[in-house]
Specification:
- By secondary structure, the chain is α/β, with parallel strands linked by helices.
- It folds into two domains: 283 residues, Alpha-Beta Barrel (TIM Barrel), CATH 3.20.20.70; 82 residues, no CATH class.
- Helix content is 41%, strand content 12%.
- It contains 16 helices and eight strands.
- Helix 2 packs antiparallel against helix 12, helix 4 runs parallel beside helix 6 and helix 8 packs parallel to helix 9.
- The longest helix has 19 residues.
- The two termini are 28 Å apart.
- The structure holds flavin mononucleotide.
Length: 389
């Protein structure tokens, strides 16, 4: 039985976000609210197979994140075949293929959402990845699949660091899934999903925008409802995605579209407690709690907000070391909204370089010693994250 089949329904998961859902963020989300499933940021299949070791950072995770699914992107079935071995060897619970990234650098090369225009290639990629998973599970080694021994050693270092050095010895086939959009230039849910369903992935996550829309306009949940009808009865799970701001809204979307669950992305930024009340949400959807979710967990007291923020920063430093702390800045700023002098604090957050510095800034804030400059200088940094799905 694959892990998707064991999840409670409806499934409420954390969407993959490049530059955001790194191991530090995912582990704080897992500890604060425990979504039903978590995805890594996407990683290019070429980087998995041939890239320098630091490009494997996106595949670092901790046990608390399970079930954890690795997301890959690219346009070459052979590389997907091989990269699937690595995902299995690294002990992930599932492999997801990105067919939704609209960014020019990805889609114009025919990867990500570019695959919506080449369904035959998309299907060949799914078949190749599935074959890679099955061959690994039947005992073929990474070296037999063409990996350089140094690369294999790098995968094993990642496992050892997680305290699971023997992971590669326990072999079982993991499920394959796809994350995509409702079309390329225009909505084309039926023909596109029929192509995907024909390859029997375990699950499809559907962002309710076309590639052309990028992140503009609103997600089209009526197209997602149509997709639920295409996928219904095929054994493939369908998750809707796009613009969900609260668990209350998640419940309403699930009820009105008949999807098997939802993925939530941007609403979790600076709010890793987002999923905390998901059991109540489930009861509401199953109509065993008609009172609904009266209050979402977004009104967290400042003391808790700061405690979580500090915990998150410490997690990040533990995973990636002090030299890359700058990548934590946008997260710190996302926590600073909706309370007095949040803008002043945000302006400091986007310059902070260590946990020690962060602690003293928070102390200054709490003791009213933070200069109120209202500098918006950090806003550019907040806008600079890429958006790949
Ligand atoms: C900063 C950012 C990075 C993203 N990176 C990925 C990615 O690596 N893979 C992917 O499938 N989708 C990616 N997405 C798309 C999200 O998974 C999701 O489909 C989209 O944000 C809509 O959901 P939301 O409105 O709940 O955020 C990204 C989105 C954002 C905002």
């Amino acid at each position: 039985m694959n892990f998707w089949e064991t999840l409670p329904r409806p499934v409420i998961g954390l969407a993959p976000m490049d530059g955001v859902t790194d191991a530090g963020f995912r582990s704080i989300v897992a500890r604060q609210g425990r979504p039903d499933v978590i995805f890594t940021e996407f990683t290019h299949v070429h980087d998995v197979c041939y890239g320098p070791e630091h490009l494997l950072d996106t595949l670092i995770y901790s046990e608390i994140e399970r079930p954890i699914v690795a997301q890959l992107y690219g346009n070459d079935p052979d590389l997907f075949y091989r990269a699937a071995y690595a995902v299995c060897e690294l002990g992930f619970d599932g492999l997801d293929i990105n067919m939704g990234c609209p960014s020019k650098s990805v889609a114009s090369s025919g990867s990500g959402a570019g695959l919506i225009r080449t369904p035959e290639l998309a299907r060949a990629i799914l078949r190749a990845a599935k074959r890679g998973i099955e061959d690994w599970a039947s005992g073929r080694t990474l070296e037999q699949a063409g990996f350089h021994p140094e690369k294999v050693a790098a995968f094993h270092r990642i496992n050892e660091r997680r305290g699971d050095g023997a992971r590669g010895e326990r072999r079982r086939a993991i499920p394959l899934s796809v994350k995509t959009r409702i079309g390329y230039d225009a909505v084309m849910v039926e023909p596109w999903l029929e192509q995907l369903v024909a390859e029997h992935p375990a699950a499809i996550s559907l962002h309710g925008r076309t590639l052309r829309q990028m992140y503009r306009g609103l997600a089209d949940w009526s197209a997602i409802a149509r997709a639920a009808r295409v996928v219904g009865g095929t054994g493939v799970l369908l998750f809707g995605n796009g613009d969900i701001q609260s668990l209350h809204e998640a419940a309403a979307r699930i009820r009105e579209t008949g999807v098997d669950g939802v993925l939530v992305g941007r609403a979790v930024l600076g709010a890793p407690w987002f999923f905390k009340e998901k059991e109540r949400t489930r009861k509401f959807v199953q109509r065993t709690n008609e009172a609904g979710i009266e209050r979402d967990e977004q009104d967290v007291p400042l003391s808790r907000r700061f405690a979580v923020l500090l915990d998150h920063a410490r997690q990040f430093e533990a995973f990636y070391g002090p030299n890359r702390f700058y990548r934590m800045r946008k997260h710190l700023a996302w926590y600073c909204k909706g309370f007095p002098r949040a803008a002043a604090l945000r302006a400091r957050m986007v310059r902070v370089s260590s946990v020690g510095e962060l602690e003293s800034i928070l102390e200054d804030y709490l003791n009213d010693r933070l200069p109120i400059t209202m500098a918006e200088a950090g806003e550019d940094e907040l806008k600079s994250v890429s958006r790949c799905g």
